[in-house]
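Batch manifest, entry 17 of 40.
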Amino acid sequence: MLKISESPLNPLDVIEAVSHPSAGAIDVFIGVVRDHNEGKPVALLEYEAYPSMAEREFLKISDEIQQVIPGIRLAAIHRVGALRVGEVAVVCAASASHRAEAFTACRKFIDEVKARLPVWKREHGPNGPYWVGWMDARCHPEHEHQHHNHNKTL
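Output type: structure tokens
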């Protein structure tokens, strides 16, 4: 189970996907929408993804980790759409014979998912919505005004 979902996530679905009789340990990461980011209040997050590309990348990440840590099983679901504070955005799980491998695999999995999955996040706060990770592309009225005036002088 490595997928993108528009429906609310149930961590038990991901746990069940990695459960098997030889798994003595299952480690789970649950990413939840919090009420702030970088010191600014957040009321809502919108996640967008290219589902088929994201699911292919999920599989690629999973295969890479399974080559490094043999015998583990991985599963994950990432939510898309509008999520309010407290809602589950992503669930990753790793099972292994022992806890050390499960912890290591789950940590590596979520780190790679955050770095590589083609999922985009737009935060809604007191200054309006903005895409996370695109701070350099944010337009500010005072900058637009200065730029506009500069163009007039040319």
